[in-house]
Amino acid sequence: xxxxxxxxxxxxxxxxxxxxxxxxxxxxxAGSSADGTNGNLHGSVTSRPAAAPRGRSLPESQSxxxxxxxxxxxxxxxxxxxALEMAWKAACASPRPAVVLVPAGRRYLLKLLTLRxxxxxxxxLTVKGTLVASPNRADWSDSDRRHWIVFRSIDExxxxxxxxxxxxxxxxxxxxxxxxxxxxxxxxxxxxxxxYCVGLKVEDLKIMNSxxxxxxxxDSANVLLARLSITAPGTSPNTDGIHITRSKDVxxxxxxxxxxxxxxxxxxxxxxxxxxxxxxxxxxGISIGSLGDDNSRAEVSGITIDSVQLHGTTNGxxxxxxxGGSGYAKDITFQNMVMYDVKNPxxxxxxxxxxxxxxxxxxxxxxxxxxxxxxxxxxTSTKDAIKMNCSENVPCQGITLQNIDLEMQDxxxxxxxxxxxxxxxxxxxxxxxxxxATDTE
Length: 441
Known about the structure:
Blueprint: H1 5-12, H2 15-28, E1 45-47, E2 62-66, E3 75-79, H3 81-92, E4 98-102, E5 107-110, E6 113-116, E7 123-127, E8 130-133, E9 147-152, E10 157-160, E11 164-166, E12 190-195, E13 198-208, E14 215-218, E15 221-231, E16 242-245, E17 248-258, E18 264-266, E19 271-280, E20 286-291, E21 297-311, E22 315-321, E23 326-342, E24 344-349, E25 367-380, E26 384-389, E27 396-408, E28 416-420, E29 422-431, E30 437-438
Parallel strand pairs: 2-4, 3-5, 4-7, 5-8, 6-9, 7-10, 8-11, 9-12, 10-13, 11-13, 12-14, 13-15, 14-16, 15-17, 16-18, 17-19, 18-20, 19-21, 20-22, 21-23, 22-24, 23-25, 24-26, 25-27, 26-28, 27-29, 28-30
Antiparallel strand pairs: 1-2
């Protein structure tokens, strides 16, 4: 990613006069941009608000750092990674709130990139145009194939703008072992990764065709994900929409997710997550897990999935854990969900195994308890509308089924419920009747 020394001179040449100009404007109290037009967001300048009525404090002004001012070409062919790195460093060092601007109507090609904090003030990355991944897979080495754009250790970060993040995933998918069984299984990049971020907001973006997972939130807190459109073909491998792990106090709302894997995957260390008004499909549905793989400990609690529609997904409301794990998944509510032609509308599977070889029988398991399925209706493409396949040694406990109505798609026969090692109760009308087919109840 590092540019040659010649390239550095090209980028740095306009930077010194630009910073000087910004300082002059700030000292003079000017509100115009570097090109002399008020309100134009194309320079790294300080804009000042109009005078506030007496008795009200003025809002903080913002410094704007446009990629184009740092040598970006925006033609979708030349590498603009260095330009974004420089714009970010300048914004992160700003003593007042800063905006990194990706101008509209252009495509900025990026290789692997990490934008780091801590920053001196809050930073907003405003994407008006498109950030597009390099189509050359050789730009990623085996030492780090898991990431594309990473935000790390940044407080009060906002990413917004109405633009697009394009992962160019069609260059990666044919090389997946899930597409070509003869190939070895290798990881592919996640389009957007947020690590150790507090007070994060990601809003009003289109994220498409990621190489693998579209967005991952890890080790973060106080997070809002809102009004996102996440899309990839239903056949694209491992392209989860939103992945959350080791994070707390997260809210996801008003999102449309169409991918080739889980619309949302909620994994170990997630606490106090609220999801509402999400439309999902195609994809694998909304999944808690997988948890406990490789005999690991998992802890998940305080999860609410509310007001969700699922269209043609493999699963609806799902909890999946490996045998041999430990820990817990508790205080979980799936409610107010509508399903259209969903293969497994309600499913708990403590014997999950996504391995080339069968998983061996083990005694320990992640404890699943305090789970509510409430106000769920719609249609399924299989008879088993409700499936609870729980551990013999660590049974599922405190499972509530309330106001459930799941019918066969196009009225083709009747649905049923199957249970194994599950302790449940029902309220209201539940169709199909719980556990009409059971191994151990």
